[in-house]
Structure formats: C-alpha cells, structure tokens
Amino acid sequence: MQSAAEVHKQSIVIDGLIIANWGRELFEDMRRGGLTAANCTVSVWEGFQATVNNIAEFNRHFQEHGDLIRPVRTTADILKAKEEGRTGIILGFQNAHAFEDQLGYVEIFKQLGVGIVQMAYNTQNLVGTGCYERDGGLSGFGREVVAEMNRVGIMCDLSHVGAKTSEEVILASKKPVCYSHCLPAGLKDHPRNKSDEELRFIAEHGGFVGVTMFAPFLKNGINSTIDDYVEAIGYVLDLVGEDAIGIGTDFTQGHDQNFFEWLTHDKGYARRLTRFGEIINPEGIRTIGDFPNLTEALLRHGYSPRLAEKIMGGNWVRVLKDVWGE
Fold this sequence. Notes:
Blueprint: H1 4-10, E1 14-18, H2 24-32, E2 37-43, H3 48-64, E3 69-71, H4 75-84, E4 87-93, H5 104-111, E5 114-118, H6 140-152, E6 155-157, H7 163-172, E7 178-182, H8 196-204, E8 208-211, H9 226-240, E9 245-247, H10 257-263, H11 291-300, H12 305-323
Parallel strand pairs: 1-2, 2-4, 3-4, 4-5, 5-6, 7-8, 8-9
Helix pairs in contact: 1-11, 1-12, 11-12
C-alpha cells in the first residue's frame, strides 16, 4: 500500500487558482507543497496597460527565481516542471476587463503566456455580468471574445460570473470551460457558490470544476478544517463525476487587509460588493506548503490513489490540453 507522501510525490499537483503575494517566500512554499503548477492571477480590476505591467513583473520573477518556478504555455511545460522539481506558472486573469474593447488583445495576451481568463469578476464588464448584480447575460462583444478565446486557446473561467452569463458562455464555447475555484451552494448558500444545477450543467457540457477552500464560502466558515474541504470536494464529485473535478484553492497568501478592500469594491475603488470578514484558511491546509496534507486527507476519506491523483491535478492536465489545442 502506497503512503500518502508517495502518492503526493508522484502526482501532478495543480492549483487552479492562486492570487497570492508573489515573491521568493511564496515560491519556496509552492515547492514545499510539491505544487507542480498553478493558475496565478495577474489581472483583476486592471486594464490592458496595468495587466501588461503585472506580466512584466512575473517575467522578472521567472528570471530571478528560475530555480523555483518556470512559465507554462503548454501541458508539456507542466510535465517538464514536474521533472525539474519546479512549479509551473500559468498566467491567468480573474476578469476580461484587460481586453478592454479590443478583440485583438485576446491573442496578444495569449502570446504573453496567458492561459485562463475569467469572463467577469463580480460585476458587469463589456463581456458579461458578475455574480454580485443583476445578470444581463453574455453581450454580443462577449460572444466574440469567447470565440476568440476558443480560437487562440485560452480557457474561459466562470467562477465569479453570474448564472445567466455562465450558462450562455457554456453554450457558446466550443471548448471546455471551468469554474476554476468554487464551492457548492448545497453546503452553504452564498452568491459565490454554485447550485447543484449549475455544477451539473457545466459538467454535462464538457466543463470542469475546481473546488476552492476559501473559508467564507465553506460550511463552517473560518472554523473549517481540511476535512470540511474534502467534504465539499466529495459533494461536487457526486454531481460532476471523477473526470471533471480538480483543485482551485484561491490561496491569498501574504496579502494584507488593503488587498481585500481592493478586491471587494467594484473596480477596486467604487461601491462595496461584499465583506469577507476574517479570512483563515482551513485547519490542516493553512499555507500552500501544506498541500501534501490534502492528498493525505483524500486517502484518509477513502479515495483511491488513482482518484486522488486525478483530483490533485491529473484532470486539470487533460482539460487544459484540450482547451490549449495540443
């Protein structure tokens, strides 16, 4: 019988969403956690120019911390990261705002290494609507953006997107789309959590669900443990099946209160959209370095090593390969 440590070591471990405070300390924790790759947010409220600046900053990280991290543009890069003992960085957006009103910017960002883009972050943009206001659905321009993202190979993410816009993206996209980081409303009713119907619908249309452990959205809030997280994974698994599920922690490691104020106001400065309250990651997986505990918890809850490997990252590789057109 394989130990949890052995299963974790041989697994491709992928986090579908991290929005941490990037730097050496964080990248070292990624290595401690045995993280093979992660979707790392480089744009939320920023427009085109500020997002390019964020990517330029990440390029400096690749130079200065190349012993720990490497860029990911293909799934072959993810496998190389595993071989090299580095963490592969997929650049991702949590808002299509950086595309502004220029369809041509979609391909430009793809060429800069962006692999996953969320269509809207909490509120309305030119593409569609977020989950914190009345949902007008996917705009005409939004349909063009989805088609262009399909063409160039960028995954559509619907984690913070309104239900109607999400449904219309799922139906419009010719490639699999995802909720990179979400939790089931069946365990806690919250505007950011997805109903059983929404979770089934995305899976039935070839989509993918990354389960988050963001404490405010978990059943027991800041008193949650890694076992509560595994319960949420199990709940989603029952709805979407073992091929359409993975991890998307939403780690915000290293950020201060000002960062959360920026996140929770429309455009970063306008009306308040929500209050998270205190944010403490579940006991047992407080930091990215605790990732091996998740593999151990899955096995402890009766998951087979094969299924644990699929959930920890194997499924992400398969779906990204499809979306990226490899």
